[in-house]
Amino acid sequence: MSAGMSERDPLGHPVYRDMPTTIFEKMSGRARETGAINLGQGFPDAQGPEEILRAAADALMTRSNQYPPMAGLAELRGAVAAHYARHQGIDLSPQEVIVTSGATEAIAASLLALVRPGDEVLVLAPLYDAYLPLIERAGGVARVLRLTPPDWRIGREALAAAVTPNTRLLLMNNPVNPTGIALREQELALLAELCVENDLIAICDEVWEHVIYDGVAHRPLIGFPGMRDRTVKIGSAGKIFSLTGWKVGWMCAAPALATLLARAHQFITFTTPPHLQWAVAEGLARPESWFDAMRGAYQASRDRLVAGLRGAGYVVNACAATWFVTVDLPASGIDMDDVAFCERIIEEAGVAAIPISAFYPAEPVTHLVRLCFSKADGILDEAAARLAAFRASLI
Ligand code: GLN
User: Fold this and answer.
1) Mutational test site, ligand 1, from 24, 38, 248, 322, max ligand atoms within 8 Å of CB
2) 50-286 maps to which CATH number?
3) pLDDT of 382 over the 50 cut
4) Separation of 62 CA from ligand 1 center, angstroms?
5) Which residue's alpha carbon is nearest to atom 9 within ligand 1?
6) Residue 72 backbone phi and psi in degrees, to 5
7) What mean pLDDT is reported for the chain?
8) Could you confirm whether domain 14-41+289-394 is CATH 3.90.1150.10?
9) DSSP state, 357?
10) CB 350 within 8 A of CB 34
């Protein structure tokens, strides 16, 4: 301990002092060590779209590698605005788009910019594990509305009861990781009404907006009545283009909000690598058929893993979006909680997964396990075969 630091003054901010490493990193680390098939952390195993990789490589060699404008290259800001106009009917100006180093940075910047000391932030569990520490570190207080399977439905009364006079923000994810659901039209309408009635700002983590199946269209909250000027819409090139390591994201909001968001962003990462921004701008301009093909391929992977698991006696919940399916352990005849099951399968079956309890701060749902299907057919088949053998060994 260095001079001047007393026993009563332990090192580090309380939010981080006792915090475990995120479950995604932990499970990927275990998979690397043990050689397990990694269906834990959500990332594809493919190289990524050739034409977008090529665009990034070309830009790296032929364009500037110095600081781009702080809020992002004009070309990418324009491409994001044009993309949302075309795909979601939203009318944004390029000045309302701030490019970030991934969606997690966008969430952090939004919270740092908008949470005032003591403000309450309404969140819906299950939730991405970054939300709560970021809210707390930003000086806010999280109010968690706990949702439960099988429907994960958001009810009007529960929502109203979670709001207090100190609530200033709603932080939400749609489509939802880890449940794989897309919020229903009435639920989005309820959330929008709640925001308008209580004068809340909504931070919408919509990173899965394009990874949605069975012909269903994504419905952005910013498009609901009264939401245009009170919503921060967050997107991710990593998810849209299957390039999670790129860490290119953005946050879109009306000018008064965007100005604040940019101030927070400028002192987190300041800028995002320019060659990646050029490539993402090109990617966003791809024709509708490109996005359909991407969705079609993941939908086939979803169906493949689900069929393999069901064939092995597992009960798998419906998945409308994301790269994840959830397995119901008790319904599958497995008498273990999610953490125990994930421990057993990584060691004994050689498959890494994520326990759903990791997405709850309290009173977790403990009977569901998340598996990522954005993998090659052979990997999915091998994982299903290993999990089949594991289940058979229990009976
Ligand atoms: N979104 C990823 C997942 O759910 C995790 C992102 C991360 O690990 N930072 O697996």
Assistant:
1) 24
2) 3.40.640.10
3) yes
4) 32
5) 24
6) 115, 160
7) 97
8) yes
9) G
10) yes
